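Hi all, long-time lurker, first post. I run a small reading group and we've been trying to get comfortable going from sequence to structure in the token notation. Rather than ask abstract questions, I figured I'd post a concrete chain and ask someone more experienced to write out its structure so we can walk through it together at our next meeting. Sequence below, copied exactly:
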Amino acid sequence: MKRTFPKIIVHLLFWIGVWFFFYYFFSYNSSDKGYVIWFANLLLPLTIAITYFVVYYLFPKFLFPKRYGRFVLFSFYTLLASSYFIVVVIYGVLIIYKRFDATNIPPMVKNFFFILILVYMVVGLVSLVTILNRSFTTDKRNKELQNKMLSAQLHFKEQELYYLKKQIHPHFLFNTLNTIYGLALKKSEHTPDIILKLSNLLDYILYQVDKPRVSLKDEVLHIKEYIELEKIRFQDTLNITFNSNVIEGDIQIAPMLLMPFVENAFKHGARKNGYLEILIDIRAKNRTLDFCIKNSVLPSEVKEGSNGIGLENFRKRLDLHYNGKYDLETQITDEWYSARLTIHDLNDFNDG
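-- Answer (accepted) --
Happy to help. Here is the structure in token form:
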């Protein structure tokens, strides 16, 4: 109702303006103002009827649905009907006001084609405004719909990323707590040290992991702390090689992106000749990350896809942040399971 009332006022003011427009043109070179007023009064309702018929019937029923053939046909019928009624108005005023006396009538009123053009100038103006307004409204709705879709996609990605992270944390905590439990039973002197290291890692998981980005340097540091925890658990049955170049402090990545690979190496690796062997290599240069990890496996225990939370979840996280900008390759041989992750252009990062 609030929108309808101003719209009615606008229409009313417009048609008042059209009436004065008719009066001005038809009174040209004429002193018979009464005839002009009569003619404008009868021509205006006809113009209003034609305009609204075109705008509110022909456009929505034929033009906008792209039924162009019918639109042209009915437009032609409308032109014929309007021509007939314009003639009726011309002769109607002549009969009512002049009693068939055609002398001294305004010259502009005599020209049928001029009147027809004048009427359809008004129809064309209103039609143009209607089409432009519809185009603007459609574009606005499309943009709003796109924004809603982007917002929904962003929300979905945030939720998906949240649950993917939650899938990772329990595995890590379960393994570490089992280690602490075993050491506590043995009353090992390493128990306080491992609790302290776990505390640092929990701080990283509970607070840092919720950030969209973390320093690659911090990620590597916590990987080293995790390895130290596992060294205590495995004691003399672990043979691990860790290589990393000097990483610049401003390089950032998604949190807990590399840690699950390391965790899975310990979880699914197997001892050969009494040792679990793990090789880790991390290189970051020219905004490109090259991460490679290998762990020993037993041929009899190798099963495709037996990689903890699974490659599918790894790829989902990578797709969320580095879609189209990473390569992830895995390989299983008789003695080794290896994974290699390369991320190109670390600066081009999707926070969603």
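A couple of things your group might point at:
The first strand starts at residue 214 and ends at 215.
The first helix runs from residue 4 to 26.
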